[in-house]
Each structure stands twice: as structure tokens, then as C-alpha cells.
Amino acid sequence: MKKMTKVSLAVVVLLVTSIIAAGTVWGSNALRKIDAVANDNIKIYYNGDLANLTDTDGSKISPVIINGRTYLPLRAMSELLGIDIEWDGTTQSIYLSTDSTPSNTGTPKPQTTPAPSTETSKPSKNKGTMDDPISIGDTFYWSAKEKYIDTNVSADYSFTLLDVKPMTIDEIKDLGFNVTSNNEKFDYVMITAKVTVSNAKVESGEVYPELAFAVDIWGTKTPSGYSVIGGTDYGFDGSLNRSFSEVVKGSDGLTKKLKAGEVGNYSYTGKAIIPLTKGEENYLVITKGYSFDYNDRFVYFRLK
Q1: Reduced to 3 states, what is the DSSP secondary structure of residue 212?
Q2: Fewer Cβ atoms within 10 A, N terminus or C terminus of the chain?
Q3: Which of these, 59, 66, 63, 80, lies nearest to 34 by C-alpha position?
Q4: What residues does each domain of the chain span?
Q5: 8 A C-beta contact, residue 196 and residue 115
Q6: pLDDT tens-digit profile of 22-41?
Q7: How far is it between the farthest Cα atoms of the chain?
């Protein structure tokens, strides 16, 4: 995953003409004239090296001055800084991403519930096993090909446990859930996690992405051998399930199915209620997919 370079977006966001195809129809209320001056004398240095900003045809691009402010071409700067960029002419949208895989599904990407900053998250050096669980803030990556109903689907995944907070029975009830288990044996936490689904594909027909590509929470396990199966990642605002559902909605508010031949890329952040065995160290357990051998199917995350 690429790291976003700290550059003011006000500097790079305006000049997008090099990525917009000729003939695109703009709404008349979105057009306005501006006075601009190109300055060929301005030099751009990146990490001490002189940058040569060029258009897609190789021609030189110069910074432009508008009302005393300097603006730089978006595509040239994104390539220089290692930021992925996509233009969707249908929705008049520009997508910037620090992920190595672009997010082109042909529809605007609604924002999910804000989550703690992931600027410090990094690929985990841990294996994700019971003996070597993933630490909070680290990211675990894997790929899977699964059978979904009557077709095969495949994708690359990542899961980052961002935050863990204790949760009371009253707080769970306030979300609309009844707690019927023996509370003398169980505690509960609310986790916040970030999930990415990249290169999502379906072999035939069409599927709802949030059903075919959802990451399953198995439950929790302890090093001493206790297990609690289950976790509630649905049914309340900000849950992982609802966050995924929001990401795959189109501008009309309806879920966009992923069809054979299309590639889906999704990123969302959400919460889940997780039961714990009291008095024990507990690890969160998720499944990579049921096509894996049983011993390689589960990924373990530290909860503290």
C-alpha cells in the first residue's frame, strides 16, 4: 500500500484537463470562466530532484497561476507522488487512492462511518495464527476463491483491527439487541475494523458484493482453549455489514450488482459486537474463506 505524501490538495486538484476525455458533456451550471496564466519558469522539485511534468502525449505541462495561487496538473502530480487516479466521465467524478488497486465500479463511492486514523497501519509481520496473532493497527492480507451459490467468485482482501472498546449489556440493549447468554461467563467489546476487497470478480451471472465478498467474523478464542462462536456485525448504524452495503450503492441509492467481466474494488470501515470469555486473554477470529484447509482457514487478532 502506498503512503499518501503530504501535499495540499488545493495545489493539485484544479487542473484535470489531462484526464478528461474530449467531448464530455458538462452541466451548464457547473461551468465558469477563470483567468489563468501558465508560468514556464516555475520549477517543481520532489525529494530534491527536479520533476519533469508531462501530459499523456509527452508534452510539457507548466504550473498555472489563478488569483495569485499556483495550481499543478492532477494526473502528473499523482504519478509523481504515487497516488492512483481514475476519471469516471459518467458521474463526473475523480477518484484518488493510496491503494495499489484502483476503485473503478462506475458509480460514486459513498463515505462510510468515520473511523480512527489508519495512517499508522502497516502490513503485519505476524502470521495471524493462534501462536502469532495480528496486533491492533496492523493489516493482514490474503486472496481467496470461493463458491457462492452457483458461481465462483475471487478477490484480494485485507483486514485491519483499528480499535477495541469494552461494552456493557445496557449499551448492547440500546442498540436493539437482547442478551440471553450467561453474563457471568462472558464480557463484550465493540471493535472497529477496516476491510478492503480488491480485484473482486465473478465468473458468471451477477452477485451482490456485500453478500459474496463479506469477511466472516468467526468469534473469539483463548490460548487456554475456550471459544465463543459468533459476533454481531449487522443490525445497527455503523456496523460492518451496513457500511459495506453503503459502499456498493449507486447514486440512485440502490445496490449495484457485480456482473461477470466487471472488477469491483471496495473499502469500508465498520463496527461489530464481539463476545469474550471472562477472565481470559481473547483473540478475535475471522475466516479467510471455506476453500482453505481447516487449519489455514482462520486469522487471529489481538484484542488488547
Answers
A1: helix
A2: C
A3: 66
A4: 9-97, 122-302
A5: no
A6: 343 434 444 556 677 777 77
A7: 73
Distance, CA of 195 to CA of 215 (rounded, Å): 8
- Is the Cα torsion angle 229, 231, 234, 236 positive or negative in sign? positive
Element containing residue 174 per DSSP (H, E): helix 169-174
With H, G, I as helix, E, B as strand and everything else as coil, classify residue 260. coil
Distance from first CA to last CA of the chain, Å, rounded? 25
C-alpha cell of 85?
487516479
Enter the C-alpha cell of residue 30.
457547473
pLDDT of 118 strictly over 50: no
Three-class secondary structure of residue 172 per DSSP: helix
The rounded distance, in Å, linking the Cα atoms of 188 and 277 is 9
pLDDT in the model for residue 50: 73
Nearest to 192 by CA among 158, 165, 153: 165
The three cell numbers of residue 251 are: 447514486
Nearest to 262, CA basis, from 98, 106, 150:
106
Report the predicted TM-score, pTM, of the whole model to 2 decimal places: 0.61
Q: Would you state the pLDDT for residue 88?
A: 53
